[in-house]
Write a structure and sequence with these properties.
With about 210 residues, this protein is mostly beta strands. The chain has one domain: Glucose Oxidase, domain 1. It has two helices and twelve strands. Strands 4-10-9-7-5-11-12 form a seven-stranded mixed beta barrel. Strand 11 and strand 12 form a beta hairpin. Helix 1 packs parallel to helix 2.
């Protein structure tokens, strides 16, 4: 296994996959170098804060919850565990048995989303693997600090999406969504994942890196 940093960020691009109902991704040059005397290029972005690789803040689903600018840096910088989940639908409490979850731990789940859901882009995969509300409660009770997943949401499309966010964000778990884990095997890693510091925001795009320990 390589000891180099692995970029697990999904690149932003026009027309890319996004949660159904969210704004379409638009990226274009507002000014072009050399056109109409412009001395520079200037790119304009029109995206949801929950596009591609991003983080959720507590206030996304929790009234009065912390905004993205309040995230402690230790939530997404330090040792983490990438755990393989061979499930077809939702991660359930039984799937977490024997993992010896630790208080303050950073966990990333690698599922079939890595090899299926992202390959369906730009179509949105409504049948992606998600975390059930019951499993979210197990993670919350264990005191896990950070949870990452390999598609656009911890909650499934039409199943537990509100409930699992309320449980996990309400317990103070920082959530990373939209990781691209095609070059990552289960194991121990160092994590760096820093979201844009947007004051009061319910989420923000981020750049995420993993390095084998």
């Amino acid at each position: 296994m390589s000891s180099e940093w692995i970029d697990v960020t999904v690149p932003l691009e026009n027309g890319m996959v996004h949660w159904e109902g969210d704004p379409e991704v638009k990226i274009y040059r507002h000014f072009k170098l050399g056109v109409d005397g412009m001395p520079c290029n200037l790119t304009k972005l029109e995206i949801s804060a929950h596009t591609a690789t991003h983080m959720d803040a507590m206030c996304h689903f929790v009234p009065g919850g912390a905004g993205m600018d309040e995230m402690p840096l230790e939530a997404t910088m330090g040792p983490c565990r990438v755990i393989g989940m061979d499930v077809e639908n939702q991660i359930m409490p039984s799937d977490l048995e024997g993992l010896n979850l630790q208080q303050g731990e950073r966990i990333i789940f690698r599922t079939r989303n890595t090899t299926r859901s992202w390959e369906m882009a730009p179509a949105f995969d409504k049948d992606f693997v998600s975390i059930s509300e019951a499993a979210g409660k197990v993670l919350a009770e264990a005191g896990v600090m950070t949870v990452g997943v390999d598609y656009l949401s911890i909650g499934g499309f039409g199943k537990d999406v509100v409930e699992v966010h309320q449980v996990m964000l309400g317990a103070g778990i920082w959530v990373i969504e939209g990781l691209w884990l095609s070059e990552v095997e289960p194991g121990d890693y160092d994590l760096i994942c820093l979201p844009l510091k947007i004051k009061g925001a319910d989420g923000a795009p981020c750049r995420a890196l993993l390095k084998p320990r």
